[in-house]
Write a structure and sequence with these properties.
heterodimer; A: 585 residues; alpha+beta; Penicillin-binding protein 2a (Domain 2); seven-stranded mixed beta sheet; 17 helices; 23 strands; 35% helix; 22% strand; elongated; B: 142 residues; mainly alpha; 4 helices; disordered C terminus
């Protein structure tokens, strides 16, 4: 009998219910754990790279080790630029107690010349950091450091310091050297051209820091040493450069000219001995200089060389056998070419004259006839050989050229005017290198400024020089250029003691504006000394001179009156400085 | 088999408190040693930082002095000092006339073709050089 017996739930159902609950709990736990795991995986796997970088940024420090910029020396190893340490002062206003503000401001005003009201404003602000003065010298930094002002700090930086020039507001050879900006990048001149060589490669140290921002000395260091920049040695002579700048400044001021430039070259190597511009600027204070002053007029300014070109024209014609210094021509004072009547500067009938006379008196008709005697193709090929149809390739940033059209594209009139240096554009480096062919025995010496980079000689110096004209043609041209100084327009340039051993040529060309020639001129003089064994070749260009009386007679601005005396003054100084003596006559 | 520590404990007759004191003492010594080491490292770090600062100042001073030195020899400074001393550059009144150099740079290196030394004297010199002088040179080089 089964009455009164309690019935129990079926065992299978209870077991199933328990298992279901356990399974459900496990499932919930698994889901929860999965959420945690997946979140962990997200942080540890997906975000690993980013978090690792953030962590490293907190405890790892990368300190840049700047490379020391290479020095620049002249040919006598006089250092032309020195790296100096300058300082910037900054304040952290939150670290300056209110009671100290006035004292801090007064100290900053008296030492670095800051504005008192401005400093007080900064100190009263909520900012954490502010510069008060930038890039001042060490003596001021020492004074500031000695005061131990709260919340005032000093930041070091490196600056290039250049030698003083002729006036207090200029530095020596500023337009040639250029300068280095606050980012350490060379700007203009050699500093820009040799930026990579001079700057070197910076290094770094990677180390660890503790919570107090102290370096953990025993931590793992990664050290990459900087590679300092190479020193460069120039062909420049600081003494000659100074003499050139001084004489040029005097000349430009005396003639009320717009500007002037001097370029001196070593005839045998093509090395630049002096490179002067006036007006110039102070490379130590480039931040406060008008940017127009940075332009270098020696290599970045093209001009029409005028009668200086006759040396190239007659040199080529003599070398090709078309003329000799004694060849006689008739000069009625003008020549009609390509429908244009082109005259001599004096519009006079000179009658029968030889080519020595043509160069002495700088006659355009003679130059045109010499060009016609040798022919257009030969004349053009000599322009190429003398280096006047392409950039000189000098190792200074910013060389500008305007090459002439091809031989076939040049009109007859342009050939004619080019023969006496009008209608053809050159820069001073091209022109001096071309004239230097005569001083260098007929060979073209590639112009350059740097002789050595570190201990390596400039490869240009090891290359053979191309022969442009023969030594015989050189001797004839030298004789004709000597006659210019002794009997012709170059008499104002005679250097005492060298009267019989000096070669040169004047040049004056009118400046075109909107296709019309004006009365403003580029006046120049080029020559070498001594003529028998040249030690230097020099070109002086004065731009837009307005010499006394030239408002009535514009020929008073000619090269022999304006550029010639500057050339003479510099040549005299070089002769004394280099102990040059005239050859035997 | 006896454990070494228990043997020591038996010898020292240390009870459990003794063991604890000993352990704490050892840990304390280790901590003190670590602290001393850390303090030394910190001190060294500060010394290094201070010396680096001094080095930077000295380098800045050196740069400043170098610029002053270079400026002293700069043409502008030289001229200014000369002018202050009353010196003036004078243009030479005359020049010594240059003479051509009497050296033939294209000539072969060595004895000249017109060497008038007798052959027997040259041979004798060669022998003397070989036997006498060379030996002296070798001896000296040691």
């Amino acid at each position: 009998m089964s009455v009164g017996v309690r019935r129990r739930a079926p065992r299978l159902e209870r077991i199933g219910s328990t298992r279901l609950r356990i399974f459900a709990m496990l499932l919930v736990a698994l889901v929860l754990a999965g959420m945690v795991w997946s979140r962990l995986a997200y942080w540890q796997v997906a975000r690993h790279g980013q978090l690792a970088i953030q962590a490293q940024a907190q405890y790892r420090e990368l300190v840049n080790l700047p490379a020391i910029r290479g020095a620049i020396f002249d040919r006598n190893l006089t250092q032309l630029v020195v790296n100096t340490t300058v300082y910037s002062a900054f304040v952290s206003p939150d670290q300056v107690p209110a009671a100290w503000r006035d004292r801090v401001a007064t100290a900053l005003v008296s030492i670095v010349g800051a504005d008192h009201a401005k400093v007080m404003n900064i100190l009263g602000s909520t900012s954490k950091f502010a510069y008060i003065a930038r890039r001042f010298p060490k003596d001021k930094a020492d004074q500031l450091r000695a005061l131990k002002l709260p919340g005032v700090g000093l930041e070091e930086d490196t600056q290039r310091s250049y030698l003083p020039g002729i006036a207090s507001g200029t530095t020596l050879a500023a337009n040639l050297l250029g300068f280095v900006n606050y980012n350490g990048d060379g700007q203009y001149g050699l500093e820009a051209y040799y930026q990579k060589t001079l700057a070197g490669t910076p290094g770094y140290i990677s180390s660890y820091r503790d919570l107090a921002n102290r370096e953990i000395v025993l931590g793992t260091h990664t050290h990459q040493a900087p590679v300092n920049g190479s020193d460069i040695v120039l062909s420049l002579d600081a003494n000659v450069q100074y003499a050139a700048e001084q004489a040029l400044a005097d000349g430009v001021k005396k003639d009320n000219a717009e500007s002037g430039s001097v370029l001196i070259m070593d005839p045998t190597t093509g090395g630049i001995v002096a490179w002067a511009d006036y007006p110039s600027y102070n490379a130590n204070d480039f931040a406060h200089t008008d940017t127009a002053m940075f332009k270098d007029n020696v290599s970045s300014y093209v001009y029409e060389p005028g009668s200086v070109m006759k040396v190239v024209t007659l040199g080529g014609a003599i070398n090709s056998g078309a003329i000799t210094p004694d060849t006689v021509i008739n000069d009625p004072g003008y020549l009609s070419v390509g429908g244009f009547r082109i005259s001599d500067w004096d519009h006079r009938n000179h009658g029968n004259i030889n080519y020595t006379y043509v160069l002495q008196h700088s006659l355009n008709v003679g130059a045109m006839k010499a060009m016609q005697a040798e022919g257009h193709d030969a004349f053009y090929s000599y322009l190429q050989a003398f280096g006047l149809t392409k950039a000189s390739g000098i190792d200074v940033a910013g060389e500008t050229t305007v090459p002439p059209p091809s031989a076939a594209q040049m009109a007859d009139a342009q050939y004619a005017t080019s023969s006496f240096g009008q209608g053809i554009d050159v820069n001073m480096v091209q022109m001096l290198a071309a004239i230097n062919v005569v001083a260098n025995g007929g060979k073209y010496a590639p112009p350059h400024v740097v002789e050595r980079v570190g201990s390596r000689i400039n490869p240009l110096l090891l290359q053979p020089q191309r022969q442009v004209i023969t030594p015989d043609a050189v001797a004839k041209m030298t004789g004709m250029m000597e006659a210019v100084v002794q009997h012709g327009s170059g008499y104002t340039t005679r250097v005492k003691g060298f009267e019989l051993d000096q070669a040169g040529k004047t040049g004056t060309s009118q400046i075109p504006v909107n296709g019309q020639y004006t009365l403003d001129v580029w006046s120049s003089f080029v020559g070498f000394l001594p003529a028998s064994h040249p030690r230097f070749t020099m070109l002086v260009v004065i731009r837009k001179p307005h010499a006394a009386g030239s408002d009535r007679d514009w020929t008073l601005n000619d090269g022999y009156i304006t550029a010639g005396p500057v050339w003479q003054k510099i040549a005299q100084a070089v002769a004394v400085d280099w102990h040059i003596t005239p050859g035997a006559h | 088999m006896q454990v070494a520590s228990s043997t020591v404990a038996e010898r020292l007759r240390l009870n459990s408190f003794g063991h604890a004191y000993l352990g704490v003492g050892a840990v304390l010594i280790a901590v003190l040693f670590y602290l001393a080491l850390a303090a030394q490292i910190t001190q060294n770090s500060y010394d290094i930082t201070r010396l680096q600062d001094q080095q930077r100042l000295l380098i800045a001073e050196q740069d400043q002095l170098r610029y002053q030195e270079v400026t002293l020899h700069a043409p502008a400074q030289v001229q200014q000092q000369a002018a202050q001393s009353g010196m003036q550059r004078v243009v030479p009144s005359g020049y010594v006339t240059g003479q051509p150099v009497a050296i033939d740079l294209t000539a072969p290196v060595g004895a000249t073709a017109n060497d008038s030394t007798p052959l027997w004297a040259r041979a004798l010199a060669a022998v003397v050089n070989t036997v006498g002088v060379t030996r002296d040179v070798l001896a000296a080089s040691r």
